[in-house]
Amino acid sequence: MTKLTSSIFAIYIVLGIYFLSVAIQTPFVNIALSEVKEQLIIADPYYPKWAQRQLIEKGDILLSVDRQPAADNPAVQKHLTVIEAKELSILKADGTIHTVPITHLDIPEQLFTLFIFPMLYFVLSICVTIYLWRKNKENFLTNLLILFLLTVSMAYISSIASSRANSMGHIVINFCIVLCLTILIHFLEHYFRYLHIKWPFIESRLLYIIPLLVLCHDIVNFINPTIHILTPITILALFCLLVICIICILLASYLQTRSPKIRIIAISLIIPFMPFLLLFAVPEILGRQAILSSEFSALFLLLIPFSFIFIQVNERLFDIEYQLSRLRYYSALAFAIALVLTIGIAILLNEYDSIAKITGVFILLFIGIIAGFYAKEQLDFKHRKIIFSSNGDYVHNLYAAVNSIGNARNQQELEARFTQEIANKLGTTTFTIETVTDDLPLSRGEMVIEYKVIQIVLHDTAEEKIVLTISNTIQKKELLWLELLSLYFSMFVDNLKLIEDLVDEIHHMKVASNTQVPWLDTLLWNIIEKEKTILAQELHDTILQEQLHLARELDVIAGSQVIKKERVLEIREQLLDSSQDLRDYCENLSPPLLDTFGLQVALKKLIQKVKIRANFLLDAQIDRVDFQDVTLHLVVYRLVQELLNNALKHSEAMEVTLHLTAIDRGFALQYSDDGIGCNIDEMIASTTSMGINGIRERVRSFSGDMNITSIPDEGMQIYIQIQEKSEDKHD
């Protein structure tokens, strides 16, 4: 998370807690008044059912608010409305004075919509923000998504204070309701560039002028209330205009590219805004009564944090179709459960006519149940070893079995390990694995169950078939486990046969010609010549050119009548520098410190040299790492060397960070810079980017993982992880 994003996150938490504290202090009543003969008459209670229960009627005279004269209440003076109160005194038509104490539980509608829902949204936004940041740290697109989520959430939370005529809440909601859509357009611009989609629209950064003007206007209006240019209707109009712009951008781009990623963006981010736009904002702008109140239409904004689970910026989105199918499945289950529970609650509370309240309860239950499904899914996976016995965790056992049989060196050992896995997992010895030449009416992987006898063809060729026969009843999950393991067994047999055939062919060719295998010699020769060419090019472009230049300088001095001592000393220094460069090349080819003093000392020496040559600030943190495979020490050294050389030659960075950390049976290497960056696809396809491609090939040769993130003009981040091969990976 960048410093700016971290600061905004801290401000978000502080303001959110402040607005929630404002909401919980005093119940929201919102009773409209009219003034008749200097008396304050109750005209329109916002919560008519509550008013009816409290015997508050239209035409009653309001005497006091919180034991203070009603005329002295600031909200009454400014808006002719009682916005919040803990106690009201009312003069009834029969001359009696009626005192109404008010608590939050007396008006559950305002408690839910103006405190509980915003508080849940506040906490949920924090959780999703932390989740996004942990998933993809230091990524510009992720930071934009985080900022968008925080501004949407802040607009929602500040509305509960703005509805209470809180000046800070009024300023924040006007600013954030415009800013969130501006950030969304900014995100779309950079995301389209990431997808190599042309952005033919306005430069998004220019749009930030709009929320800044709104903020300046509200601050000036706070200082001098007579200046009131932007009305709430104007802010709603700006909001509608920006939403329409976003819809047009997404529709035009989707029709042009038919990209499923654009479609998921539209579904995830636009739909939550539509109820607020169509059911509240548009009717208000047109001067009509809103179809759904602002607090209920804003409940759909609760869908936005869940949308962020689908929008992952880590070189690609999630597997969209899989995620959408899972969401549809959970939504169908949640809809049915939420509908039944909502009907039950409505019957118990006798709330048939309050459509808004029932709708709010249904939405809350629907979203909560979906969130519960996702949470249960994560918890089940995390505690799978507790929920399932070791014998019942079929996925884990399949993974362990595949790793075990995959390490077999020949077919005999493969069959032995396969036999052992079946005996351990199924707990039976009543099975046989035999090679038959009979014409069985079964194909590879096919299973037949007859009279409690199971037959599976593990492998077949034109001459023979390997058949597994089990004379025992096993469960359905065990059958699935067995079928999958059999498929893996068949693939391993194919691979072993290919390797054996290749080795036999090489041996036969060698014996027949009594020489090395020609194609293997050619491959090795090409690799050696390629490395020689790279080294020759490096020496030619650097040291050799420097030597030729100095030779010409010496020719000039030899031909002159007067030899200047200072110039000779200067050439001497240049020769020493050239010799030092040559020594560095020798050390790079075979670092002497690595074998003598170990990896840590060699890396520290390398980093010191880079710091002397570099034009950037290098922050390097090197942890002690040890491996059983000594070649990994050289691998780590070469990777660090290549990364720093790439930073020196190409990055044009001001700051570079490099962290080497030890992990279980391996290491993790994190590199980042703030340089010119690049287009990942073009870099990989380029023949000139030998450094990065060399790193990729080196990591791949050791079965490691490498992740590169880069955007032009916004730096590069590289994450590398390599682990030693172990016989006990599944443990």
TrEMBL record:
> Which Gene3D superfamilies would you find in this protein's record?
Histidine kinase-like ATPase, C-terminal domain
UniProt entry tagged with the keyword Cell membrane: no
Q: Name one Pfam family in it.
A: HATPase_c
Write the lineage as a comma-separated list: Bacteria, Bacillati, Bacillota, Bacilli, Bacillales
Source domain of life: Bacteria
The protein's GO terms of the molecular function aspect are: kinase activity
Q: What is this protein called?
A: Histidine kinase
Q: Where does the Histidine kinase/HSP90-like ATPase domain lie?
A: 636-724
* Sorted UniProt keywords: Kinase, Membrane, Transferase, Transmembrane, Transmembrane helix, Two-component regulatory system
Span-the-membrane segments of this chain are 7-28, 111-133, 140-161, 167-185, 206-223, 229-252, 264-286, 298-317, 329-349, 355-375
